[in-house]
Write a structure and sequence with these properties.
This protein is α/β, with parallel strands linked by helices. It is built from ten helices and eleven strands. Helix 2 packs parallel to helix 4.
Length: about 250
């Protein structure tokens, strides 16, 4: 079995278990998604008690449903929240709790609410990120994780790193259901990042594997069609003079 097939088998297995054990939450079915799960609020609360969360002034959180409560708790703690738009098609949104009435924090933490109450920001205009919260389909105690297979989380990381908004020292964590934590090793691609900690409804897991942090976008491995579909990425490529290298792969 190839490493790509192995990764896809792991994703499918976890999605199937979540549906069969009925620990998946709306939207369902969870196949093809960063899966929402029963206990996501408890996992978010556990994360909010961590040192990384308490120390952070700026938190980047993925826009998916299972991390909605993380976004809300960050706003309630007075933190700036950076939210990528779905598929990064509209760049990044910045949620500032000082500019949002507190009774609207819950609404502002939804995907639609992020667009309504947040402000669009170019990557270069964003504040430096202190903590990254990533969505995951599968993760293990070595910090190896898989998203839904489209690579947007890694591209978001690369864009912010390229603009100097995300250093290699910034911790990356994830919130998942316990059944999403597997024992086996996960084959990683060159662009993958690992997580430093995992928060589930029942426990905190400090990861013990090799810490992987790409320095930016791996232009030579980037799908030209994906670059064309993400305006902020194309702009970055033009600024970096990398667009010619990407075209050479076509």
């Amino acid at each position: 079995m190839s490493w790509r097939s192995s990764r896809e088998e792991l994703r499918y297995r976890v999605w199937k278990i979540m549906e069969e054990k009925n620990v998946a939450s709306f939207p369902r079915p969870v196949y093809g998604r960063i899966p929402n799960f029963v206990g996501s609020d408890a996992a978010a609360a556990r994360l909010s008690e961590s040192g990384e969360f308490k120390r952070a002034g700026v938190v980047k959180v993925n826009p998916d449903a299972p991390q909605r409560r993380v976004r809300e708790l960050a706003l309630r703690a007075g933190k700036l929240v950076v939210v990528p738009t779905p598929r990064i098609s509209g760049g990044f949104l910045l949620l500032d709790p000082k500019r949002i009435p507190s009774w609207l924090y819950s609404a502002a933490s939804t995907i639609q609410g992020s667009f309504r109450y947040g402000t669009r920001a170019e990557p270069g205009e964003l504040p430096e990120v202190d903590l990254v919260v990533a969505g995951s389909v599968v993760v293990n105690r070595y910090g190896e994780r898989l998203g839904k297979g489209e690579g947007y989380s890694e591209i978001e990381y690369g864009i912010l790193a390229e603009y100097g908004k995300l250093s290699e020292e910034v911790p990356i964590v994830t919130t998942v259901h316990d059944v999403q934590v597997v024992e086996e090793r996960i084959p990683l691609a060159p662009w993958d990042v690992t997580v430093d900690a995992i928060y589930t409804p029942t426990r905190e897991i400090r990861c013990e594997g090799e810490r992987r942090r790409p320095r930016g976008i791996l232009w030579e491995l980037l799908d030209p069609e994906k670059m064309a579909s993400i305006p902020v990425l194309r702009k970055l490529a033009e600024e970096r003079g990398s667009i010619s290298r990407s075209r050479a792969l076509q």
